[in-house]
Each structure stands twice: as C-alpha cells, then as structure tokens.
Amino acid sequence: MAKHAKNEQSSHTSKKWRIAPLKGSFMVLAIIGFFFSAYLIYPTSVNYGIAFMLVFVAMFAASLISMAHAPIRGQ
Questions:
Q1: pLDDT at 41 > cutoff 80
Q2: 61 phi-psi bin (left φ>0, alpha ψ -120 to 50, beta other)
Q3: pTM for this structure?
Q4: Cα 53 to Cα 31: distance, rounded to the nearest angstrom
Q5: Where are the domains of the chain?
Q6: DSSP character at residue 14
Q7: CA 69, CA 75: separation in Å to the nearest integer?
Q8: Spatial distance between the Cα atoms of 29 and 4, rounded to a whole number of angstroms
Q9: First-to-last C-alpha distance (Å) of the chain
Q10: pLDDT, greater one: 45 or 17
Q11: Is residue 60 within 8 Å of 30, Cβ to Cβ?
C-alpha cells in the first residue's frame, strides 16, 4: 500500500506545464470585456460586475503568460 502512494506522488511531480499559444484576439476580448463590465455592468450590479471583471482579468493574465512562455510557431 505504501508503494502505491509513493508511485502516485512521483507521477504528480513529473508533470510539466505546457503553455498554450493564445491568439491576440483573446487579449483584446479580455480588455474589452473588462471595460464593458466596469462601465456597464458594475454600476447596475456590483456582484456581477466584480465577478465578470475577475474573469476578464484572469483571461488577460493568461494571455500575458502565453505571450511570455509559449513556444514560437514555425520553429
């Protein structure tokens, strides 16, 4: 039983993160969605406004990570 736990633990540490290359339109959508949420949704519903803004901030962060770490196409 201890052997199975050791194998399970080692399989979790051996996984390597692979960064997906995202399109530029993904970043543009994140920026537009954030401003749309901030100016149109937030004044009418604070909870939904904050929730949507957090989603679009996460999208923007993902696009920045993709730009910095994704493999270059064509090479």
A1: yes
A2: alpha
A3: 0.71
A4: 10
A5: 28-75
A6: T
A7: 15
A8: 45
A9: 46
A10: 45
A11: yes
